[in-house]
Amino acid sequence: MPLYELMYMVKPAVKLPQLFEFARQAGKEVISKGGVITKITSYGRPALAYPIKKPGARYEEAHIMQMNFMLNSKELKEIRHTLSTDERILRWMILKHSKFPSQVTFHRYLKKLDHDAFLTDETVQELEKVVGPFEEVDK
Predict the structure, then answer these.
(1) Where along the chain do its domains lie?
(2) Which residues span the membrane (predicted)?
(3) pTM for this structure?
(4) Which of 51, 92, 115, 130 lies in the 20 to 30 Å Cα band around 123?
(5) Rg (CA), the chain
(6) pLDDT tens-digit profile of 103-124?
């Protein structure tokens, strides 16, 4: 499974509970397709370098979020469709990383997550093929 990075900008009028609900929804979609979320980051609501124009509106700031995940590339189509059709999203981009994180970095991610909720035995075996075996981490 390749490592992907999703960056997206959400309209500034969207309230924080709705913003986090969208992140939760996107995360559930990744997990339901057998993926693993490795990191979620919010960069707040900064002023943009240039305004984004949409029909009937002009946005000079936006909520910026990042989600890193591992997922089979065949499963990305539905996630792209969801991002393209959601009215709250101003811009989005999915990048595929050419290399996996190191085993140490991967352990650090697992320490932050309740890995039992995110990793199935099948997913762990798939990951161990790529990054090598890893031991249990403290919660």
Answers:
(1) 3-100
(2) none
(3) 0.68
(4) 92
(5) 16
(6) 545 555 555 554 444 555 666 6
